[in-house]
Design brief:
Blueprint: H1 2-14, H2 24-30, H3 35-38, H4 42-45, E1 56-65, H5 66-69, H6 93-104, E2 107-121, E3 128-137, E4 149-154, H7 165-183, E5 192-197, H8 204-225, E6 235-241, H9 254-273, H10 276-296, E7 302-307, H11 309-320, E8 342-346, H12 371-374, E9 378-382, H13 401-407, E10 419-423, H14 430-435, E11 452-456, H15 479-492, H16 504-512
Parallel strand pairs: 1-6, 3-4, 5-6, 5-7, 7-8, 8-9, 9-11, 10-11
Antiparallel strand pairs: 1-2, 2-3
Length: 513
């Protein structure tokens, strides 16, 4: 027994070799073979073990050593060559510094896989199930012959060409766009697109569970509310996963490594928002919405929901937008177009001061001061039971009750030009509070048109979710958040047969006349 223990210890220290995973050859070539990175593509590693419980897509973004997955173009910041970042105003100092990191960080974010999930019927019986297939899978060259490709899919890069992976991510999103347009056509097509992004230290297997919980409770709320026949709601879920874990210190326990990783993963969340999530929101989804509107006469609302660092990534993606472009010469001059009809930040791990105008409370030098142009409505939640949000003591994080108190002091609420403060004092007041929120859509960058809905939810966000830390930080996977999401969609992004909200482009045309 003692000999086995010594052998085991020696094997651990010497990293004894053994059987590799069937994706290992590609993982090794991409630099994503470590345990902390392997668990960010579990959807293609276990294609029948992980699934959405409803129709939708999961887009996997991962981080790999820059020199392995980028060409020379993406290894030097434009500003180092005396050029500007695409779509980012030169005066936004902090935003430009973050945009530099998209070129200078030792690792680069790339899209490695896109899974599609749909209800299918067995060819030999009437049996139905939700089944996934890969629209794009950079790990396609595997040894297990998984054959999970969709009927129409983008082939993986050939072995030896992985330095094109960053550029190829645009091809992957183009493939997603074609599939989405097809999905949004025909009878009983989806009426809404709901994008979910989860937060810090969330492996992909957990993200799937969270997507299903959030969307499932939202559907429950909608179905319970649809008995009067007024509501047409068939949401299509788009889950986005990103490398939210940091476990590079082999001999440092997670108890120490996790707090150390906070700043690193905060920056990663911003980078994701300013790269592929921003491209997805500003270019792909808006392009699809406009095409469906033009060709079918149907307006498909876009709802973006993020939790914790996921809310940081979502707000970056919507309110800052992408700082990359396949061709900078033809890129838009800015990202100030209407993107999401509704943005929901659940216990957001980012500074609320990002919304303050330049010269105001914002200390990050790049507030989200065009949020009224980019979103129809924005809602943020806060709770005094969330203890993890206080880790960033240097920042007034949106999910912190102290941040809510700062904006919502007695006597100053009605004069606040940015936030419409609401306090759910009792659980019984929850739905009434939501239903009494002002029915206003943001139109133009006019402070009088709308404010961010800032809701303190102590009686709702109050429990500890299993196997999570930070008090009630992750208490968002229960029925009340599904009800919140549905009530906000019904009020601010109805779509379907309720109301066709005006787009910014339509309003501009009306104004011109």
């Amino acid at each position: 027994m003692r000999g086995l223990a010594i052998l085991g210890a020696a094997c651990f220290l010497a990293a004894c070799s053994g059987p590799t995973s069937y994706l290992y050859k590609t993982e090794k070539a991409l630099g994503t073979e470590a345990q902390a990175t392997k668990i960010m593509h579990s959807g293609v590693d276990f294609p029948r073990g992980l699934s959405l419980s409803m129709p939708g897509y999961v887009i996997g973004i991962e981080k790999a050593p820059r020199k392995l997955v980028t060409t020379e173009r993406w290894q030097t910041s434009p500003r180092a060559k005396g050029e500007a970042h695409p779509r980012i105003p030169e005066g936004e100092r902090r935003t430009n510094i973050l945009a530099d990191s998209l070129y200078t960080d030792s690792k680069a974010h790339i899209v490695t896989h896109i899974m599609k999930y749909d209800v299918t019927k067995s060819p030999i019986s009437a049996y139905q199930r939700v089944k996934g297939c890969a629209l794009y899978n950079l790990y396609e060259q595997d040894l297990a012959d998984a054959k999970i490709q969709c009927e129409r899919y983008l082939p993986a890069l050939p072995e030896g060409q992985y330095t094109k992976a960053f550029d190829y991510s645009w091809n992957a999103l183009d493939q997603f766009k074609s599939s989405l347009l097809e999905t949004l056509s025909g009878p009983d097509a989806p009426t809404h697109v709901v994008v979910y992004v989860m937060g810090w230290n969330t492996p992909q297997i957990e993200a799937y569970r969270n997507f299903n919980s959030l969307a499932g409770h939202m559907l429950d709320a909608a179905e319970a509310d649809a008995s009067n026949g007024r509501v047409e709601f068939r949401p299509l879920v788009v889950g986005v996963t990103w490398p939210s874990l940091w476990r590079n210190l082999k001999f440092v326990p997670d108890l120490i490594a996790h707090p150390i990783s906070y700043r690193n993963k905060a920056n990663d969340a911003d980078e994701v928002g300013m790269s592929w999530l921003g491209v997805l929101l500003h270019d792909v989804l808006v392009g699809v919405r406009n095409q469906v509107d033009r060709e079918q006469g149907r307006y498909i609302p876009i709802i973006a929901v993020g939790h914790s660092f996921g809310a940081r990534a979502v707000t970056r993606g919507v309110f800052t937008g992408p700082a990359i472009a396949p061709n900078p010469e033809t890129a838009p001059i800015d990202n100030y177009n209407r993107v999401a009809d509704l943005v929901i930040g659940l216990q957001g791990a980012f500074s609320k001061n990002r919304f303050h105008p330049k010269g105001g409370k914002g200390e990050e030098d790049q507030p989200y001061d065009h949020f009224r142009d980019q979103a129809g409505q924005t809602l943020l939640t806060a709770s005094r039971h969330d203890s993890v949000i206080g880790l960033s003591f240097w920042s007034e994080t949106a999910g912190n009750d102290d941040s809510w108190n700062d904006e919502c002091k007695a006597g100053a609420v009605s004069d606040n030009p940015l936030f419409n403060c609401q306090n759910v004092a009792e659980k019984s007041e929850f739905l009434t509070t939501l239903r009494n929120l002002p029915r206003k859509a943001c139109i133009g960058n006019d402070p009088t048109s709308c404010r961010i809905q800032y809701v303190r939810m102590d009686p709702i966000v109050r429990f500890n979710a299993a196997e999570t830390g930070g008090g009630a930080h992750s208490d968002i996977y229960r029925a009340p958040i599904g009800q919140l999401t549905w009530e906000m969609i019904k009020k601010y992004a109805p779509g379907g047969g309720i109301q066709r909200p005006p787009t910014a482009s339509r309003l501009l045309k009306v104004t011109e006349k």
